Amino acid sequence: PIARMLCRHYAVLCFTCLEMRDSEHSIDSKSGPEGLVQQVLSGGWRENVEVAGENALTRYDRAAYNQILLNARPNGINRNGPPKLRMCGLTYLRLSDDLLKSDYFTIFKSFV
Questions:
Q1: Structurally, how many domains does the chain consist of?
Q2: Which 3 state secondary structure label does DSSP give 40?
Q3: Which domain holds residue 67?
Q4: Cβ–Cβ contacts within 10 Å for residue 4, how many?
Q5: φ/ψ (deg, to 5) at 12
Q6: For residues 19 and 67, is the Cβ–Cβ distance under 8 A?
Q7: Are 11 and 52 contacting, i.e. CB atoms less than 8 angstroms apart?
Q8: Which leading EC class covers this enzyme (predicted)?
């Protein structure tokens, strides 16, 4: 119902925690960020809503960037045209001096 309402108003659905993986949380937390992200994004795409996302945590590692890419284009790259499912935008939160003044910046440049 939320995605349908957003579609009627030509809104963009922006969701967070794109970098999080289930395996990074203890079982006791009963947290499933991968499934949650897929549920929300799929609901948006199903209702023809533009979908965007953002990271939630300060992370500068390849695993986090790869998870963001998996969520941004769940079907990978289509060499024969635009991908069927893709995000229209990504907000990178927590850009900091730590990122810009360290070896993390090389990894970040590859991600971008």
A1: 1
A2: helix
A3: 2-111
A4: 13
A5: -105, 135
A6: yes
A7: no
A8: hydrolase
